Amino acid sequence: MARIRNYRKVLEMFPKLRKGLIPSTLVLLTLLIGNIENTAQATDLPEQYKKWLDEEVVYIITPREKDVFLELTTDRERNLFIEAFWKQRDPTPSTPVNEFRQEHYRRISYANQFFGRSTAKPGWRTDRGRMYIILGEPRDKMTGSGKNELNPTETWFYQGMTQLGLPAGFHLIFYQRGTTGEFRLYSPLQDGPQMLLRTYQGDPRDYIAANEALREVDSQLAEFTLSLVTGDQSTNLGRPSMASDLLIDRVETTPIRQIEDIYAQKFLDYKDIVDVEYSANYIGSDTLIKVSKATAGTYFISYALQPDRLSVGQYEDKYYATLKLNGTVTNAEGKTIYQYEKSAQLEFDEAQMRDFSHRSFSLQDMIPVIPGNIRLSVLLQNEVSKEFTSLESALYIPDEEQELQMTSLIIGYETKSHPSADSRLRPFQNGDTQMLFQANRVFRQQDDLWLSFQIHGMDQALQERGRIRYRLERDQEEIRAFERDVESYARRPNFLERISLQDLPPAHYRIKVSLLLEGQEVLADQEEFDITHVQALPRPWFYTKNLPAIQDPIYDYTLGTQFFNDGKYMKARRLLDQAFRKNPRSMEIALQLSRALVALEEYDSVESILLPFIDRPQPAEFDAYLVLSEAYRVLGRSNEAVEVLNKSLLQNGLHPLTLNALGRCYLELEDTAEALKALEKSIEIEPKQAEIKSLVDELKKKKDGIGT
User: What is the pTM of this model?
Assistant: First the structure.
C-alpha cells in the first residue's frame, strides 16, 4: 500500500470536501490517514507493543513518536523507546516515581471500570474514557436522568487548565440516544440541543426553538448546549458556537502539544551510536553554529551546546561532571571526512554550585574545516547522568579561491577581549574579541546588542568608499537603520558594532548587515533574536575548548586528513607535508602523509617518512607497518615488505590484515607454501573472509596440481 504522508495532499484531491469540513472533522481525517499510513507496520508488532501503541498511549502519543516507534526493529529498542517516552513526560525526573505515568494508567483503569458498562466497547475507547484519560477528573459532574423528555446526559465541568492552552472554564456534555448504548460526546454545532431531547417534533435546524424546548425540561443543561465554553458571547444570536468544536479539537490535541517530541527522532538517529544506558535519556538543548576565518585563511566552525539541564555528581563537598563530545563531519555525498572525540572534566565547590544552579551551561568548541557543502553532527554525553544531547547542521564553507566573503554574524550581550600576545584560538572570536551570548539569542530591553563579523577580500574601492549598513526589522518592517564607512573600522577584516536595545519593546527581531558600494548592496547577512520583557535574565556559564595558535601543525594535519577522506589527495599531500615538516616526530602525521603518498602512487617517498618509526625500539602505529610494506611490495621489494610485516607480528601480535598482506608478499616471491600458512592463519582468526578463502582454495588447487 502506498503510504500517505500528509493528509493535506488528500484534501487537495477533494477541494469541495475540504471546503465543507469543520475543524473536528479535519482532526479526525488527520488521525485516520495517520493510522492508514502505519497500519501495515503496526499489525506486525508483537502483541505487547501493539497493545501499548494502540491502547495504552493512543491518546497521548505524537505522530512523530508513533512513526519512530514503528521504525524500531527489535524488542530491546522498543523497550528503550518506551522508557524514553515516559521519561519525557515525568514532571519530577529526579524522583524514583513517574507521577505522569502512574496517573495515566490510573485513568485508563478508571475508564475501563466505569465507562464501558453500557456498551460493548472497553471503557478506554468510549468518548467519556478518551476525555477522562486526557483531562482527568472533572471539577464537577452533573447527571441529567429520570426525566421522560430528556436523553440520559452527563455534564463535566473543568476549570484551571489555562496552562494547557484551554479556556479558564468549560463543560463537556455526554449523552445517550435513548436509554442504552454509549454516551457520546456532544457538539453544539454538529448535534444541537434537539439531540438531548428524547422526542423533539420541531425543525431540527431551528436551534433556538430546540434550546427553548430543552430549557423547559432542564434549564441548567440548556445553558451549556449552545456553547461549552464558559462566558462565550458568540451565542447571543441563538446559534451554536464554533468555539465549542475548536475546544474539543484542542482538548484532543492537548497531550501532543504538551510534549517536545524531538527526542524521538534523536532516539532513532543515535540508538546505534550511544550506549544503551544513554539511549532513553535525550535532553533538549539550544544550539548556535557559526563560520569564521582565521588570519591564515583557514575556516573554522564554532558551535555552542546549551543543554536544558546539566546533571552533576557529588563527592563530599565537591560537585563534578564528565562530558564526552563526539563530532562527525560529512561531505555532500554523506561520506565521513572527519571524526573527533573530546572530553570536559567539570569540578566546582558549593559556592560555585549555588551560583551555577541558577544559570544554564554552555559548552563551546571549534574545529577547522575544508571548503564545500558539509554537515556537522555533534553528540554530547554526560557520563554522570547518562544523558545525551546533540546538534546537527548543514553548512557551506566558501572555497579558498572565492575572494570577497562575509562570514556569519555573531550577536551577543557582551564581549570579552583577549591580549594580542595570547594567540590561542577561541570559539566565536574574531580578532581579539570573543562574543558572549545566549544560544537562544534572547536579550533584555536594557541590554546592548554586540555584533561581530568578518569581510575578507575587499578591494581598494570597497576599502575607501564602501559602507556598512545596519537594518533592524520587526515583522519585516524597518525599525531602525544606520550606516558607517568601512574605513572607520580600524581592525578590518574584523568588524564589531554595538547597538542599544533600550527603546525597543519585547518582540522578535531581525538584524541585517549589508556591505554597500555607491549605494548598491554587494554582500549581506542577517540574524534573528528576541527581546524579552523579563528584567533579570541569568546568563550561562561557559566551558570553552580553546585551541592552539594557528601556526600549530594540528591544523594542517586536520585539514589534510579531511581532504584525504574527501578524495582530494593532492591538497591532502600539501597540507600533510607542511604538518610533517613542522613536527617530523609525530607518528600520526607521518602515517597520514604516507597514506596520501600511496594514494598518489608516490611510493618512493614513503620509506624515508615511515622507516624511522618502524626501526625505533617502541612499536609504531599498527597501520604504519601495513602502509610501508605495501609501498615496498609495489616497488618490487617484497623481501623488505616481509621483514616489516614480520616485525609487526612480533610487535602487535597476530592480526588478519597483517597476515593477509604477508600472504600477498609471499605470492609476489612465488613462495606458495608460506603464503598459504599466512592466509590460513588469517582465516583461522577471522573466518568471515570470503575473498581470502577463495584465494586459499585456488592456491591449494594449484599446489595439488603441481604435486601430481
Answer: 0.80
